[in-house]
Write a structure and sequence with these properties.
This protein is α+β, with helices and mostly antiparallel strands. Helices cover about 20% and strands about 45% of the residues. The protein has 2 helices and 11 strands. The chain has helices spanning about 15-45, 100; strands at about 55, 65-70, 70, 75-85, 90-95, 100-110, 115, 120-125, 135-140, 145-155, 155-165. The strands form 2 sheets. The protein has a 6-stranded mixed beta sheet with strand order 3-11-10-5-8-7. It has a 5-stranded antiparallel beta sheet with strand order 1-2-4-9-6. The relative contact order is 0.19. The model has no long low-confidence stretch (mean pLDDT about 85).
C-alpha cells in the first residue's frame, strides 16, 4: 500500500486556552462526575427512589400523605393518603394542581361517592366496620412538567405538598 503524501497546511491552528482547560478538567474528573450522576439517579433524585420518596403529615399525625417528590412526565406514580379517623365517615378533598396536571388512573378503595368541581376532587368514604386508619391509594400519571402544588383536606386538617415533574 502506498504511503499518503504529506499534507502541507500553512494556516496556523488557533487553540483556545479556555477550551483546553475544559477538556483537561473533563478528562480528569468526568468519570467521577458520571458515576455520581448515575448513583444519584439510582437513588431516585431524578425520579422514583429513596431520595424522592416523601411523607408529609399534620402535627397530630391524623392525616398523612406519602408520595414521590420528583417524578417524570407520563410515568405512573402512587399517592398514599392515610387518615387516623376510625368509626366515622371520612371526606377527602384534593385540590391545587392535582386535577389539571395529572391524569388519575386508579383509586383504591373506591369511594362511596366521588365528585369533581372547580379543580377539586372530593372523595366520600363511609365508616369502616374494621378498626384502624383509612388508607387510600391514588394512581396518577403526570401530564405537565413543572412544580405542582397540592392541598389535601379532611375535616379540619389540611396538608400542602408539592411535586416537581421532569420531562
Amino acid at each position: 500500500m502506498p504511503k499518503p503524501a504529506p499534507v502541507q497546511n500553512n494556516i496556523p491552528v488557533r487553540e483556545s486556552s479556555k477550551w483546553l482547560a475544559f477538556e483537561y478538567i473533563m478528562q480528569k474528573y468526568g468519570g467521577v462526575a458520571l458515576v455520581i450522576i448515575v448513583c444519584l439517579g439510582l437513588l431516585g433524585l431524578f425520579s422514583d427512589g429513596v431520595l424522592s420518596s416523601k411523607r408529609v403529615s399534620d402535627p397530630s399525625h391524623a392525616l398523612s400523605v406519602e408520595y414521590e417528590k420528583v417524578g417524570r412526565i407520563d410515568s405512573d406514580m402512587n399517592i398514599k393518603i392515610e387518615t387516623a379517623a376510625t368509626g366515622e365517615n371520612v371526606t377527602l378533598v384534593l385540590s391545587g394542581d392535582l386535577m389539571e396536571a395529572n391524569e388519575i388512573k386508579s383509586l383504591y378503595p373506591a369511594a362511596e361517592r366521588m365528585t369533581s368541581h372547580n379543580g377539586e376532587l372530593v372523595l366520600h368514604y363511609r365508616a369502616s366496620a374494621t378498626p384502624g386508619p383509612l388508607a387510600v391509594w391514588l394512581g396518577v400519571t403526570p401530564r405537565q412538567v413543572g412544580d405542582h402544588q397540592y392541598t389535601l383536606r379532611s375535616g379540619d386538617k389540611t396538608l400542602t405538598f408539592s411535586q416537581f415533574i421532569l420531562p
